[in-house]
Write a structure and sequence with these properties.
It is globular, with a radius of gyration of 17 Å. The protein is 24% helix and 29% strand. By secondary structure, it is α/β, with parallel strands linked by helices. The strands form 2 sheets. It has a 6-stranded mixed sheet. The protein has a 6-stranded mixed sheet with strand order 4-5-6-7-9-8, covered by helices on one side. Strand 10 and strand 11 form a beta hairpin. Bound molecules: fe (ii) ion (2 copies).
Amino acid sequence: MPTLVHLSDMHFGQHHVAQLDAVVLRELAALNPDGVIVSGDLTMRARHTEFAQARAFLAQITQPLLTIPGNHDQPILSPRDWLERLTHQYARYEKYVCAPIDATLTGVGFFALGLNDNHPLAPGGFWSHAQRAWVAQQLDDAPRAALKIIATHHQLAWEGKARPAGFWFPARALALLARHGVELVLNGHTHVPGALQTPHGIVIVRAGTALSGRTRHGNGNAYNVITYDEKQISVFVRRYDAHADAFVAARAFTFPRRQAKD
Ligand SMILES: [Fe+2]
Ligand SMILES: [Fe+2]
């Protein structure tokens, strides 16, 4: 059965828990997933040193990899960096991690899109007109039988909570994704793992922070393992256990695939 690993919010820099790097890499080697998708916030303050650390970590992932930037991956609004923040806010991400920023990954039975939903001034969580058109075109050109996946940093569903944790126009975005056959959305940003299924049948998965001490609401460090077949999508949240020095099974979700329901 195809397997994906969903990592997020590694936040290299302040609060990075360096000892977890080797644990995650060891488990990725053991799982050998068909793809690894990283849903943003690779750094804490978008410093060059932090991006260099992120790049060194990502270089050790041997599986097919898709990354997107998070809001923390833009230079901060400081006297030194504000101009770069406003004019070339993704230059460091492109230099150290990935260019172009909006990218795709095609693997065994899946087609994944990574879409940058950040903004240099407003809280992120929206797409430009050009991005919406690109998403539609990419999804329409994707292999028909593929599981269509999109990764965005901000939340497309956040259990009733409003901005700024989530997307500006989630209903509009989800309707677009539903029209073009997306079945799985991968989000980061909140550092709170979880999964749900929308009325469209789209499965929305949040990842916790894999490598940062900035854990939230009692959730420790975590990442997700996702498997799927023709009928269902399963999400396994793995949480770090210090005694085992390993990420262990914490929660599991299984959802019917929307194509199987149609
Ligand atoms: Fe984050
Ligand atoms: Fe974030």
